[in-house]
Amino acid sequence: xxxxxxxxxxxxxxxxxxxxxxxxxxxxxxxxxxxxxxxxxxxxxxxxxxxxxxxxxxxxxxxxxxxxxxxxxxxxxxxxxxxxxxxxxxxxxxxxxxxxxxxxxxxxxxxxxxxxxxxxxxxxxxxxxxxxxxxxxxxxxxxxxxxxxxxxxxxxxxxxxxxxxxxxxxxxxxxxxxxxxxxxxxxxxxxxxxxxxxxxxxxxxxxxxxxxxxxxxxxxxxxxxxxxxxxxxxxxxxxxxxxxxxxxxxxxxxxxxxxxxxxxxxxxxxxxxxxxxxxxxxxxxxxxxxxxxxxxxxxxxxxxxxxxxxxxxxxxxxxxxxxxxxxxxxxxxxxxxxxxxxxxxxxxxxxxxxxxxxxxxxxxxxxxxxxxxxxxxxxxxxxxxxxxxxxxxxxxxxxxxxxxxxxxxxxxxxx
Length: 415
Ligand SMILES: Cc1ncc(COP(=O)(O)O)c(C=O)c1O
Hints:
Layout: H1 6-9, H2 11-19, E1 33-35, E2 41-43, H3 48-56, E3 62-63, H4 74-80, H5 89-92, H6 105-112, E4 123-127, H7 128-140, E5 146-151, H8 156-164, E6 167-172, H9 183-189, E7 196-200, H10 212-225, E8 228-232, E9 256-261, E10 273-277, H11 280-293, H12 299-310, H13 312-336, E11 340-342, E12 350-355, H14 361-372, E13 374-375, E14 377-378, E15 387-391, H15 396-413
Helix pairs in contact: 6-12, 7-8, 7-11, 13-15
The chain binds pyridoxal-5'-phosphate (PLP).
The site of pyridoxal-5'-phosphate has 13 residues, from helix 7.
């Protein structure tokens, strides 16, 4: 198997192209539109969900848009792993160097331990899962490549390849399929030579879960086309049943790439720490790009991530108590709201709520915020008009209070 490294081999000529990018002084287009010397328009679509979050997250009273399992304090983390919560002596002797460039051996071993077949050499540490995704797309995708993105998903997985000039095809997940991909439709999109299939599993925003048999079927489609298969697995560990940890694509497909991180299932978004688990040749190609935008992650972040992952059973047990308890609260609420319907999530921290009201999802969310202080995310931010997304994995008291206020809001719409 050989990676098509045209892109990485081209680092040098890409730099020359970049240097030639210019905008005429009288050009009043936003700076995310750039024109290169060949008059090729370079553009990246604004990130719908992140823009919504940035605008409202700090203004709302009850955040039901949050996608992390209720975040931990360092003190709570130390208590969970059985350490003295006043003892930060491990940190005091830590020298503030760049640390191990690709992530410490200790951390990469702990990350590899979350997979069945990955070793340290298959892991590279990144600035969050967001950094991992960016690096995978930048490394593998070139202009003109075919990329198939299964949507709704995290916007990186289609807007980045579009910005690179790839031919991005979207496969829409549908409510009537339980928000699982239709494999016949996927087969039609994944033509021979397709460079990459990208999806999020467990899914944000729907909470759908692709289990091993279907993942294997998608891998088979990828294999027939010679495609890489990127699974954004940042919600891995939050399944509603069993151990909570579903199969990773990295463990079942020779061209499978898993991205994940500490933010969601592990409740440690503040570490800004993620990773890529992939065949070694991908890790090597990624590290050429990574030298330009990461160097390393912080040594303190590396330390706490390793600690949490070494005790991941305990951290995940706490997460399951929250996600499983809260989903059952939410299920009762949905059952009593005549204007709301859903496909009940099987994993993750979010659900799409379909509402029966004559207003756009943004109007719904802004009115809800103004009247009650409760924050949802409008479906329009993820091309799912007619739905709002709830993040239900925060503090149960906030969820209960918030849902009661939403009930009042919905009742007023019928008056
Ligand atoms: C599917 C998905 N991928 C990646 C991210 C970014 O995660 P991180 O905080 O690890 O960068 C998010 C955050 O919402 C997400 O939902």
